[in-house]
Model the fold of this input.
Amino acid sequence: MFFQQFFAQVMNGLTLGSTYALIALGYTMVYGILELINFAHSEIYMTGAFVGLIMVTVYKLPFAAALLAGMAGSCILGVIIEKIAYRPLRKATRIAPLISAIGVSIFLQNAALLVFGPQARAFPANFSAAALNFGFVQISSLQLLILVISVLLMIGLHLLIHRTKIGQAMRATAQDKETAQLMGIRIDRVISFTFAIGSALGGAAGVLVGVYFNSADPMMGFFPGLKGFVAAVLGGIGNIPGAMVGGLILGLAEVFGAVYMSQYKDAIAFAVLILILLFKPTGLMGRRIQEKV
Amino acid sequence: MLKLENVVTHYGNIQALKGISLEISRGEIATVIGANGAGKTTTLKAICGLVGVTSGKIFFEEKDITGKPTPDIVSSGIAMVPEGRRIFPRMSVLENLQLGAYLNNDKNDVRKDMERVFELFPILKQRLKQVAGTLSGGEQQMLAIGRALMAKPRLLLLDEPSMGLAPMIVSSIFDIITEINQSGTTILLVEQNAQMALSIAHKGYVLETGRIVMEDTAENLLHNEQVKKAYLGE
Ligand SMILES: Nc1ncnc2c1ncn2[C@@H]1O[C@H](COP(=O)(O)OP(=O)(O)O)[C@@H](O)[C@H]1O
Ligand SMILES: [Mg+2]
Done:
């Protein structure tokens, strides 16, 4: 009995955590390449959820198509944001793109309010979960789906970054932009591509969470966005495996913390953020020293 | 092969190059010597398009490359070994070399070029899987040169390859620069180590606070009284 409940909580934590991880990846990839916190990432996530929702409610498409459409929508939005809100400020002081990011975030929230209204929208009922029985434990099919999709996306990202030429160009650009250009790399394209991938992952998280909690609303990005950011910092901002681990730890911490103090569920992320900033500001997997040759 | 006409560059309001003109013919080693802060690095960065040119023109093989994006300049046949080597420290030696050949999509060709780099620098072959940031300074310099050669440049720009290296390693690196030149690559070498640079170059320029103050054959510069006093420590 205890074990079954414990296992259910672990599954809840991993499910939530894997979506935080997907969001965290967007923050960490963009930070890794531009040293910029993309505060509009919450809204990129929200946009993914809405695009997914429209696909299933208006166009009656199946889940897989909605997921891909949500990812595509977020991807395009991310690329556009980079082009108009960040690229012109690349040589400006560090604070300028940060302010621009907050501006974009507020703009997109309000645009969504205007288009969709403030009330939450529900996904249709045929997306609700069935319980799968594995002998003595039960897993919701939805949780399993979210976990599997998240893991597949993360494996895909890992392969992209380590096994492809564009991935190599992304790593080179993150390490040294000037030298990357000397190799013939067009860094503007690489930066665009990084936003595209990071945003698509955020959009996937939006669709998955929208389906999981069966709701989407214009403000839905706020807490997951913050938590994804905390997960990225926890793992070491700029560090891709760190974002994955940070997301899972945060998801588990939140679920188990909520057992004892459910009304403070959202505060757990901030407690984690404060602890990390106090005791290990570089994050769990962050580099100890900044290597500069 | 390379020609700079009155090139002026700025960092903000500060004029770093105040009208540089120089000319390098195919097959030669030209060197620009000058003290720290004279504008040597800025000159090379201007050629590669990494710093903007305020006025003046840069021609490579008769084509105007002024203001072109860096990747276009690289693909036209110029490669640079930057100051401080600037290898990608968290990547392996192999990946650094692959990145040098980023614009070459012919895998077999890349493999052949890599073999040529290993002939020049056998140590790199032994270190292939090693993370580049853990190499010694001399090995990192060899990697930086090898990486630049992977782009098959017709003109190779070298920014202070002797910096921070022991004299023995410096002389072996300079031997290899001569060897690269003899196999047909034109070289523009920028150095504070005037003695070494003039000893391998055909032609030299002396740069002082953004201006070329002297130009002559390397031989003549080596015996020039002013150069001796200011740059050769005699
Ligand atoms: N990024 C920069 N911003 C502002 N000033 C710079 C920058 N880089 C170089 N300078 C200035 O330009 C001048 C030439 O520098 P540089 O080309 O690096 O000289 P060198 O390579 O001969 O040591 C120096 O006065 C230097 O302070
Ligand atoms: Mg310099």
